[in-house]
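Progress against Task 2.4 (sequence-to-structure conversion) is shown through the following example record, which the project officer requested during the mid-term review.
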Amino acid sequence: MEKRMFKVYAKNDEKIQLKVIPGHFVTSQSHITHYMDMTTMKTRCAEAGRIAAVLAQRYEATTPVDSIICLDGLEVVGAFLAEELAQAGVLSMNAHKTIYIVTPEFHQNGQILFRDNIQHMIRNRNVVILMGSITTGVTLHQCMESVLYYGGKIQGVSAIFSAVNKVAGIDINAVFHKQDIPNYESYHAQDCPMCKKQEKIDAIVNGYGYSKL
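Structure tokens generated for the chain above:
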């Protein structure tokens, strides 16, 4: 798979490079034509900081943020995003604030929950949800429902890549979009044309990585 990989450069910062592998991939919600490898983006400080700087532009002058909910292993990016938002500045709404970095827990039935010791970081807080990749929006919708259940106020949703522009009426603030990936498509399993052509599945993928078949 790695031999097919190519890179896409962010419009706001050409030093941010998204590694893209074309093929036949299966997520928990859909079949997709491209896998976005975000491993170094999530773990390398320089890249994580650049991504955070791009995402912060949406919020720094207009949006109060108390907590950043990190899915898909994005705690490093989340910490840099909090730092960007909390920097002192005339236009910053969050200067000198303490911003929580929170990782939700996934129950075995798929429910997203926050334990008692974490709930005060959600309740009555202005929340931004941070994800690696948004394909259909199903996981994001579950997270949004959980945040609202625990009393949080959703102020925004950010992602490294998003195939959709809105979920539940909220605009997605993403570094990369569907139109940035040539010929990217997402299908429901029963409608997947690759399956109908009996094309081999390359890997099962989720927000944490891939497992080859």
